Amino acid sequence: MPPFTLGHFSQVCCQLLNHYFGEIVGQVGAYLLRRGHRPLFDIPCATGLSIAEVKKALAVMIQHNLVKFEASERNNNIAEYSIIHHNVYCLLRYPKYLYMIKRIYGTSEEILLEILLNLGQASASNVIFQSANRLKEANDDSEISDPSALHQSFLKLAQDNFIIRCPKLADNANMQKVPTLEVEEKEKFTVPHLEIGPIAKLLKENATQLGEHGDSEVIWRVNHERFDVEMRNVILVNAAARRVDSTAGELYHIILKLWRECSNPDSPTTNALSFNVIKDAVRKNEGSSPVLLEHFEQYLRVLYEDTSSLIIKVGDAGGGQFILNYSTVFENLACATLDSIVLERFGSKALRLFRLTRIQKFMEQDQMQNIAMIPAKEAKMFTYKLLEHNFLQIKELKKGTSNFAPVKSFILFHVDLPQQVARTALEASYKGLFNAMVRQMHDLTDNKRLLDKHARLETLLETLRGEGLPEDELAYLSDSMTAAEKSLVARIHSMNDHLTLGQTQADDTILILESYLKFSSMT
């Protein structure tokens, strides 16, 4: 780790770069995270790496859309490099991306996305060729995976904006020392004509490299913004399902798809949908359950009458007009998240004081303990604990009676949700995420030899079991690891699973708080 200090978010990014790309890329990334836009010749001096190592690290990060470059403001002939913070953090979400695509489409689309994530940037033909080879190896037979079917899967991903074209050299790039990259809006999700025949021929010949192909200059990458929207929608659908039941979650998923088609996903409020439009969409949806078709109106009424504001009714035309206010719904989700944090850290009485102060806006100490019905001593203790950890803020009001009398002041407690509390919880989430990642890496590194030994033994036993070796001989081989070693391996795997789950839950919390801060800043 470089000698300079990094915030918790930057530490998470450094850990991800180290894990996926190695220590050298992690060092260069850490320096760019700390210093922002820097020219190439500054990086070797600051990191102690050679110029060749720095160039290779930058090339890897540019290939994986983690670093961008632009001409320096002071000298147009010098390129300055900077980290794309969000893309680096999204390395943590790659497993979620793959699970999401498999759930929505299927295995072929999941393989396509996995290949594109591994390559960082690639042409459509190359991704299809590599995916066909992967499917061929997985099936372990002589039949060649049909590249035309993978082409259709690629078209689906582009049509739904999960992948996007990379910008190409501008027309005047040859006239500049530092080239500029651009892509037209109408071409971002347009897949050019692909020559499937040569790909199929190479697959039959068991080729490992695609070679020259017609669309080699049209490069694609993963569209992180589209995945952010989908993950955000998953949180809202799960909230509706928890609030009511799974059928309500199913209805809400259909409504969210309609809102996405007619509204800007970054707008704090969606366009209005009519009752008739929603009803037609439910009828046309092939996966709609009989319960939803029968009780559609009741489920819709429950959703828009609920205090969680998952749906807001704004008019009666067309059977009713419905919108989603992202600011309101994510404020409610953020409040629920913060309530859970306060409950776990300080207990139910502190939660009562926190909720009461948030609802009442401003309160004096005596008011808080009286309305919350908590003894004065405990109320003061919990109030100042919440104040110490930035969950409560104070505001002093002074009231002067005359020029000669002493000034009387009032101390009011309040909750500054967007500026203080949410940001404090977000920073704590990054800290917890970083600690979980470091602990997981420590456990796996310290016990690497034992885990490798266990993996080799399990592979050997599985192979011999398939060959029909007697169970007593398998048991004899299994005893090559002592009971203590097996117990330690089981404990490491269990701890690893818990840490992975903790990272996933921390990321969900981060997504809720970031979405709340994003939409609250727009209102």
From TrEMBL:
Pfam families: HTH_9, RNA_pol_Rpc82, RPC3_helical, WHD_POLR3C. Residues 11-69 form the RNA polymerase III subunit RPC82-related helix-turn-helix domain. Its main location: nucleus. Residues 153-333 form the RNA polymerase III Rpc82 C -terminal domain. Residues 338-415 form the DNA-directed RNA polymerase III subunit RPC3 winged-helix domain. PROSITE patterns: L_LDH. GO terms for cellular component: RNA polymerase III complex. This is DNA-directed RNA polymerase III subunit RPC3. InterPro entries: L-lactate_DH_AS, POLR3C_WHD, RNA_pol_III_RPC82-rel_HTH, RNA_pol_III_Rpc82_C, RPC3, WH-like_DNA-bd_sf. One of its GO terms (molecular function) is single-stranded DNA binding. It is found in: Nucleus. Component of the RNA polymerase III (Pol III) complex consisting of 17 subunits. The gene is EOG090X04YD. Coiled coil: none annotated. One of its GO terms (biological process) is DNA-templated transcription. The lineage of its organism: Eukaryota, Metazoa, Ecdysozoa, Arthropoda, Crustacea. Belongs to the eukaryotic RPC3/POLR3C RNA polymerase subunit family.
